[in-house]
Every structure is written in structure tokens, then in C-alpha cells.
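Hi team,

Below is the intake form for Thioredoxin family protein from Methylobacillus methanolivorans. Please confirm the fields before the structure is written into the shared record.

FORM ID: S-0412
PROTEIN: Thioredoxin family protein
ORGANISM: Methylobacillus methanolivorans
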Amino acid sequence: MASLNPPVCDFGWKAPDFKLSGVDGRDWSLSQVKGVNGTLVMFICNHCPYVQAIRERLVADVRALRELGINTVAISSNDAEAYPDDSFEKMAEVAREFHFPFPYLFDDSQQVAKAYGAVCTPDFFGFNAHLELQYRGRFDNQGRVMTPVDNPTRDLYSAMKLVAETGRGPAEQTPSIGCSIKWREVA
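The structure came back. Fields below:
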């Protein structure tokens, strides 16, 4: 399983719109998930060990960000035929098990991942209130290690808190690391 790093933040890049089905039975668009002080769009999946390692901490941080006016949406774009653990049905199971406080959407066509330039899971896109990109970095310094590191950071939370307070993300950002998005083979 190859690990990838996404490119650095392209400050000011505008969030592409989308309309995708959620595991809650609703269709969601960007305007429906937009937060008053910012929006976090994250590409995750069920089977990736990097995502699995952060799920509980991610849910806690997303709840804290919501208190700051930051709304969050998660999108799974993996090829569910080749990776059945990432199927819509399995997504619903994971969302229930971990009590996801955000819509978990399925990008079956993979067009949304391509529009965002997502490359790995997790891949975080933190936008300000005007849907201008301000953060494209890692969740924390723990990676996929399940036991806490000596000096844990909360890179994503801290960056999005700054976005909520100032509209700008940190100038210095450490890229996320994760498994490659599982693209459907083109015939």
C-alpha cells in the first residue's frame, strides 16, 4: 500500500461545488454543508489504516470545530468494486459505529475527487467562510500510529480554528500522508 502526500495549500483556490448522496439517505451539496466561519472537506475511506488510526480523534476535533462555526463533510471516492470495504453500505456502518457528526458522502463517479485534486485518504481541504482554500495539511503528527506520540499536535484543528478566527490558514503547513485514492480503471 503506497503512501502519498498531497500538494501544498493553494491559498484562495475556490471550493468546487458538488451534489452527492450521503449515508443518511440525503443528497448534499457544498452550499448545504458550508459553515458560517469555514468548511472542512475531507476525503476519507473505510479501509485505509491512516484514516482508521485517526477516526476517534477526528470525530472529537470535528465536534469542537463545529462549536467554532466550521462545518465538515467527508467524501469517499474509492472504487468500491475493487475495495468492497469502501462500499456505500459499509460507509453507513462505519458512520454509525463512530457516530460521525458530519455527512459522509459517496463519490461513485470520482468526479468530485478529481475536481478537488484529492490524492490520498485522508486528504483535508480547509476553506474559509468565502470557500477559499486555507489549509491542505495533515491531521496531526501521529500518522497511522495507534499509540499517542510524546508531543501530539492538532494541526488540522489548530489550522481550522485560525481560519474560523481570522479567515486565513497558517503559512506553514505539513502535508497530509495517506493511502492513494483507489481510482477506477479506465477501459
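SUMMARY LINE: The two ends are 23 Å apart (CA to CA).

Thanks, M.
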